[in-house]
Design goal:
- The protein has 162 residues and is of the alpha+beta class.
- The chain has helices spanning 13-26, 86-104, 111-125, 150-161, and strands spanning 33-40, 43-51, 56-58, 62-66, 136-139, 144-147.
- It has two domains: 8-131, no CATH class; 135-162, no CATH class.
- It contains four helices and six strands.
- The strands form two sheets. Strands 1, 2, 3 and 4 form a four-stranded antiparallel β-sheet that branches.
- A hairpin with a 4-residue loop joins strand 2 and strand 3.
- Helix 2 (86-104) crosses helix 3.
- The protein is globular and about 55 Å long.
- The relative contact order is 0.13.
């Protein structure tokens, strides 16, 4: 990654993947999770990257969708490597999912409904990692994940530093 101020929307697929992988290694905040997507032969795969204090755990890649013209992310125009955040990545994947579903159904959505649907999905059905002070448990098909509160993370951090 050499052009940190270049908008992500203008990057090639290979450059985009490289930028996101680099960002995850160097800038993903501890105890945060992000989605990383890659298209292979018209199929969209997604994996999660979770950063603990000292390592990044990569989840099992899963098939997200398979149809022509699938997009991985829907980046806002002004987003660059330096302005990325977990929230921006999450919002971009949610918008891309909405666009991909519309394309699969043969519909073209104007920008406003995409933003409204993404906002309602993020507000109602999707909780950003570590967003609330309450602990919560997430279940995947293979594991249970407990999200720690800020206090629990601090206590655990102190214990690990001893």
């Amino acid at each position: 990654m050499t052009e940190f101020d270049k908008p992500l929307k203008t990057l090639t697929e290979k450059e985009e993947f490289s930028a996101l992988a680099n960002w995850a290694l160097n800038k993903l905040p501890p105890f945060q999770t992000m989605n990383l997507r890659q298209s292979v032969n018209g199929e969209l795969y997604q994996t999660t990257l979770h950063k603990s204090r000292r390592k990044i755990v990569v989840g099992k890649p899963t098939l997200k969708t398979s149809h022509d013209e699938t997009i991985r992310y829907d980046w806002p125009e002004e987003i660059t490597y330096d302005t990325l955040s977990v929230d921006v990545i999450t919002e971009s994947t949610v918008r891309a999912d909405i666009i991909n579903l519309a394309k699969k159904e043969g519909r073209q959505l104007p920008t406003e409904p995409i933003i409204e649907r993404a906002s309602s999905q993020l507000d109602g059905n999707y909780q950003l990692p570590m967003e609330s002070a309450q602990a919560s448990i997430l279940q995947t098909d293979r594991n249970y994940w407990k999200e720690l509160t800020e206090e629990e993370r601090n206590m655990l951090g102190e214990l690990l530093d001893i």
